[in-house]
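Risk register update: the risk of archive-format incompatibility is retired. Evidence:
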Amino acid sequence: MRLRYLFIVTFSLVALIPLILFWMWPYSKALESEYNDVKERHLLIAKNLAGAFERYYKDVTGVLVILNDDIDKESESIKTIFKSYGYQSVLEVSKKGDVLNCLSIRETICQTKVSPHILELAIASIKKDQIVLSTVTEDKSMNTGPILLGLKEKGDNFIIAYLSTDYIVQMGKKVAFGKKGHAAVVDQEGNVLAHPLDSWIKSRKNISKVSAVQKMMSGQTGIEIFYSPALKDDMIAGYTSVSGSNWGVMVPQPVSELKNKAKSIDEMAMYVLLLGLGLALLITIPISFLLINPLERLSSVIRAIGKGRNETKIEFNTSKIMPLEIRELKNGFIKMMDKIDDNNKSITRLAYTDMNTGLPNRNYFYELINKSFDKMKKNNQKGALVFIDFDGFKEVNDTHGHRAGDELLSMFAQRLMKHFSFSNESKTTSIYDIECLHDAVPARLAGDEFVILFRNISDKDEIKRKVEELFEDVFTEYTLYGDVKLKLSGSAGIALFPKDGDKYNKILKSADMAMYSAKAAGKNTIKFYKA
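Archived output:
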């Protein structure tokens, strides 16, 4: 049977068969399908929210680590960091409730003594050698609204940090679907942190008697159907717990909405299918002839590609009288082939890239340098390998955290690329093109260790001048996240090619030894390798 005739018969059957099957498909199947969709969707939303809250919990407890001994003398940058996480104030409190030191985040007046119920909750919640958050509470004397207490020991005293729950409330309110679908978040004792009813948030209503909440508090994850006293309806919810904090995240929706939707789908689909059948019979024959011809040409193109012709500019013409979809099919097919080619290039580039800095990684630099050495030997050229190591990088990580260290490495790499006039577009050209190497090829080996291969170097004075110019551009002041300012310096060792080594391992070792000589000479220094 020819394709055009088969198309007419098939098109008619495709329109008829779903209608017949739908008549046989009961309402319960539609409802079951709705249940299955909701289970997957609600549980996924709950898990995503739990993941966000897990990161939030780690951040808001981790930020307490940066406090100095005298918290009332903290800098404005520290206050800004605490304010960004929602902290209202940070207190150093004795076990009798006396406020010894105070860091006011939101320009509130520091109290001299904490409320008895705050002190009692802090003592009951604090854990030895740990930073924890208490259950939700409120200090009416300070008009705080719902807060969590960030707690840690400090000698015989302890730190109490008032943390607003606004972030949790806002995250919860972002989840809304259907008419009454929402998210609810509870603390480790079942007190409401986020909920559509503001009165429940304000009163910190305890809903631990709800079966799904009990399962969340015990660390379980799953789907539950239960009765909601707030909405006075049966609810189906995906629930899970937040690792580390023991909070619970629940995403419920009224079961009645699913039933109404299943019924609506059932009725609407019947009308649509009846209408579709009539239209299908009306347009099948002319459309079949209009579509088959270009599809046959597309088939011939696919066969040509199957025989090894990968170029996308294959003869595949469509006239203007053809439907827009057919013309888009042609363009989409060509774009798909281009995209596949781009993706292959991107995958290759990612395998060669250091993800933090965007520079070539150790493995790819090994290929680049060997390729360069082969060309330089063939052309009797000289070169140099520069090994750069930051001065005091460990102190940056220890003082400001690894996030600051990673940011510093990334910013350094950007200045390095800018110095050598590499743009983002050049990542696909000279710096990564093994067949068309640039005269300077930078890479990151590991940690704060960077190397630069210089090609076509005439003498030591030239390479020294180039490295000194580089130092002027990259070893300056850096401003990191949180307005942290650092004056970066580094030490560099230079090994000449082929004098100090004509193999990768040999010249790298020579440059490394020269770098350590620069360190020993007082840092922020450039040294050539000496045998």
